[in-house]
Design a protein that fits this description.
The chain has 19 helices and no strands. The chain is globular, with a radius of gyration of 21 Å. By secondary structure, it is an all-alpha fold. Helix 2 (23-36) packs antiparallel against helix 9 and helix 17 (384-407) runs antiparallel to helix 19.
């Protein structure tokens, strides 16, 4: 498919991805809202372990991006018959990775969490959640491979439908398994983990059925199961590893941030989780446009239109900023009015105590909506190793800022959250510099 730089095409590609890429955000939000009504300890716990599982999900998503970039490049080069081979190389690797991380979550997290968590309640509740949630990694990683396939070929419509089904199933099962409704056992935070896993299984089955019924799948040779292609897997691995490391550095530093906040107390962790919950929802447009620009950039390079890449990224970032602010400003300014019906309980004071942090969040989202697009546009060129080096240095500065802000000043949580503003300013500057330098013109994918 030959793509264009028009705003209409950017929206046509990015909007379904925006909704479809929200899978883990939807799950995290649903878990948090229901556990908020269960107890402050459960709500604080899901804040900590939820970020940990987002890191796990981001690893699989990051590796799928390597396949997505290669699929988009093949489509730009009009080599549709190579799509299936690229997809299966990605899928084989994702399944092997899922096995490794499942074993880690089952047998290694007890020791890993003990390095970060001081509260015994949060420690054991986090393990309860993972006991059931860890089984979902197989379907999550296979699912991101499906999403990467249809994003790479710029046919993103069904991703929205599958995400909506997943969200509905997850919400219903969360209510039933957390509180014991409809004859189901009341499992608390463990029920949230089980509900999310079942929802991913159902979404996976529906996507498989869709692929089997998709007539265009034959053009991609999806029904011809190839042998394990180690050279192609290595090529994808080399391209995707820096993207995974970027996700690990980015979300991993966020995980450390939650660990530092947890040391301040369960109240501070609960407030931070509330902000994170809203952040996840409001960042959905950013992730959608970022993933969309990834496909668009790679496709354009496949068409030998490198001169159009920087204007395309700038156009996408402008749309992303306007879309994000259209949602973020009303939510952050009128927080209590909007969230009181949803979160009304004896813990409503968490909303009022977090208001100052939401003003900071507005600045974070404005910068993220531009920086996320530029950074993912850079990844679409194949310059993933430069992106890794850039993000690693920025994350190091981010963690130093947090450590100083929390442990050596009286700025409190607003000061700690402001570290994200510092992070994205540097990321935008470095991304724009590299893209303008044209060093990426020599890269091959």
């Amino acid at each position: 498919m030959q793509l264009k730089t028009s705003y209409r095409q950017i929206l046509a590609i990015s909007t379904p991805i925006m909704l479809g890429s929200a899978t883990q955000n939807v799950i995290a939000l649903s878990d948090s809202v229901f556990l908020y009504h269960l107890s402050e300890e459960d709500f604080a716990s899901i804040g900590f372990v939820g970020v940990f599982y987002l890191v796990i999900a981001a690893i699989g998503y990051g590796f799928s991006r390597g396949g997505q970039i290669m699929i988009a490049r093949r489509m730009g080069e009009k080599q549709e018959s190579e799509v299936g081979r690229t997809f299966y190389a990605m899928l084989y690797f994702e399944l092997g990775l899922a096995i490794a991380l499942f074993l880690f979550m089952q047998y290694g997290c007890y020791y890993f969490f003990s390095l970060f968590v001081d509260s015994e309640i949060i420690f054991y509740k986090s393990l309860e959640y993972l006991e059931y949630r860890s089984w979902g990694v197989f379907f999550s990683y296979t699912g991101v491979a499906f999403v990467a396939l249809y994003t790479g070929v710029a046919r993103t419509g069904f991703i929205v439908i599958d995400t909506i089904i997943l969200a509905i199933v997850n919400i219903l099962l969360n209510y039933g398994l957390i509180f014991g409704a409809w004859g189901l056992p009341a499992m608390g935070i463990a029920g949230a983990g089980l509900a999310s896993t079942i929802a991913e299984v159902i979404a996976f089955i529906i996507f498989v059925v869709y692929i089997l019924l998709d007539r265009n799948a034959r053009n991609y040779r999806l029904f011809k199961l190839p042998k394990v292609d180690l050279p192609l897997i290595k090529q994808q691995y080399a391209l995707a590893l820096p993207i995974v490391a970027q996700a690990f550095v980015g979300l991993g530093s966020w995980f450390v941030f939650f660990g530092i906040v947890e040391n301040l107390g369960e109240r501070e962790l609960a407030i931070t989780n509330l902000v994170r919950m809203v952040y996840l929802v409001l960042s959905i447009p950013c992730w959608g446009f970022a993933s969309g620009v990834n496909t668009l950039v790679s496709n354009f390079i496949g068409q030998k239109k490198r001169h159009a890449v920087l204007p395309l990224i700038w156009k996408t970032s402008k749309i992303c900023l306007l879309t994000t602010m259209a949602f973020a400003v009303p939510v952050c300014v009128f927080l209590l009015l909007l969230f009181y019906p949803l979160l009304v309980s004896e813990y409503i004071f968490l909303i009022t105590e977090s208001q100052r942090i939401f003003y900071v969040l507005l600045g974070i989202l404005a910068l993220f909506s531009i920086g996320g697009v530029y950074f993912n546009g850079l990844a679409g060129t194949g310059a993933t190793y430069f992106g890794l080096k850039m993000q690693s240095w920025c994350a190091l500065g981010y963690l130093l800022y947090i450590d100083i802000g929390v442990n050596f000043t009286n700025g409190g949580l607003p000061w700690a959250w402001a570290s994200e503003i510092f992070y994205w300013i540097i990321m935008i500057g470095l991304s724009h510099w590299y893209l303008s330098s044209r060093h990426w013109y020599r890269l091959k994918v």
